[in-house]
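Chapter review: from sequence to fold.
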Amino acid sequence: MKQIAFYGKGGVGKSTVSSNIAAALVERGLSVFMIGCDPKHDCTMNLRGDVEIPTILDLLREKGIEQVGLETLITGKRIELDEIIHRGYGGIYCAECGGPKPGFGCAGRGVIVAIDLLKRLNAFSILKTDVVIYDVPGDVVCGGFAMPLRKGLADAVYIVTSSDYLAIYAANNICRGISEFANKGGSPLGGIIYNVRGILDDESVVRDFAREVGSRVVGCVPNAHEIAEAEIEGKTVIEKSPKSDIADLFRELAVRVYTNHLTSVPRPLPPDEMRHFGQLIRKRTREKYIDE
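The token string follows.
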């Protein structure tokens, strides 16, 4: 079983990339389990036609975890796998960790509880999946969201970023989290995926960043209309437009990620070098969109 984690700033297209990779892998005959770690519980949305599914934390609250505790729910067999894991496109297993009630608790806590539950229910052994994909927010690498990094759950972490400064800034923070835990049994960095978002489309910015942190760009996803059209219907491009060039691009990226064995421990940039990147991005934005 290969375990892969995708991290990135909110809104950078991380779930678009990870769900299309999941769809491309299942298309190749692999069994895939995708775990959404965002409290908004929308990571697997495009694999299930935008159909709402209960989150693991919501279900645990309904079962009385706050009154009796997780141990009692498990030993008393009050919760079953089919209540928290649902089938999506191509038979992909989908689960959403969820988050705390608004105004209460830490959002990352849901990841810790959910993954602990899945392991204690022997979900990974029972499902016998070839690939497990974690889709994790990367705006703040707190304890819960850093769990795949700390515990070494993922064989490799892939950072999805645009050429926007805030996305690069978040990517650098994720690199800092990876470097903190990688030498203590944590997960290494598999590479950077450039996904076009925002006003500036400048692949060289992302390639420069990847080189500076000691990694590489493993794929570039353009701003294609097929992606938006598919997501309106709650689908991946693989499902909605299987014969399109962008679908083929995701298939190639999926193979590259699945077969990749080149990982690294990144060297996060210090504040002064991040400021340099900010100045570089502003300069290129002016040159491209203002001076012209």
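Two observations follow directly from the output. The first strand starts at residue 2 and ends at 8. Residues 255 and 265 are 22 Å apart (CA to CA).
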